[in-house]
Amino acid sequence: MRVALLTPEFPGAGPSFGIGTYTAGLAAALRQARHDVLVLAASDTGCSRIDAGGIAKAQVWTPHSLLLRALAVGPWLRRELAAFAPDVVEAPNWGGLAWPVPRRLPLVIRLSTSVVDVVPAASRLRPLRSAVERLCVRRADAVIADSHRVPGAVWSLGTTLADHAMKARAAR
Fold first, then answer.
1. CATH code, 40
2. How far apart are CA 117 and CA 108, in angstroms?
3. Domain count, the chain
4. DSSP track, 17-32
5. CA-to-CA distance for 57 and 112, rounded, in angstroms?
6. Model confidence, pTM
7. Torsion angle of alpha carbons 15, 132, 1, 46, nearest 10°?
8. Spatial separation of the C-alpha atoms in residues 57 and 19, rounded to whole Å
């Protein structure tokens, strides 16, 4: 299987914390299981393409703001995904990085802490960031939660996780 992993951080390709560590572990495990894996990291220090051959930096402007970053790297993400032709794309909800993924590609969104949960409430972009994250979840074919508490955020949108996946599949 060809798997593309999107992430806002990755070890060796800019800052890396929980999401980057998780993505690195997932990529390694998938490769060990003989899957073809491409990681596309859009950190605040730039964009990187990570495959079995290593890390290749791209010349793409990546603003510090996660929302603006998701908008700025959209064309780069779409080009990389088209060239790789994945069977599935996996991404965190964090910052809405998956919004530019073409609808023809199956998308799995992994719920983690939302940007709106950790960004100061004074941010004027907070409602828009929340909307972009929800858009990615609604568009997903499948949703993964990393704890029993997290799905409540999706359920509060008025539908169940299964409803999101069924609606996304029916729209294709």
1. 3.40.50.2000
2. 21
3. 1
4. SHHHHHHHHHHHHHHH
5. 26
6. 0.78
7. -30
8. 19
Which of 90, 73, 64 is CA-nearest to residue 2? 90
Among 102, 106, 80, smallest CA distance to 1 is for 106
The answer for residues whose C-beta is within 8 angstroms of residue 158's C-beta and 6 or more apart is none
Parts of the chain with a pLDDT under 50: 116, 118, 121-122, 157-162, 164-166, 168
In whole angstroms, how far apart are CA 99 and each of 14, 127, 135? 22, 16, 7
CA 148 centroid distance within chain: 20
Range of the domain at 16: 2-170
Q: Which of 46, 70, 41 is nearest to 128 (CA)?
A: 70
Say how many CA atoms lie within 13 Å of 31 toward its Cβ.
Answer: 16
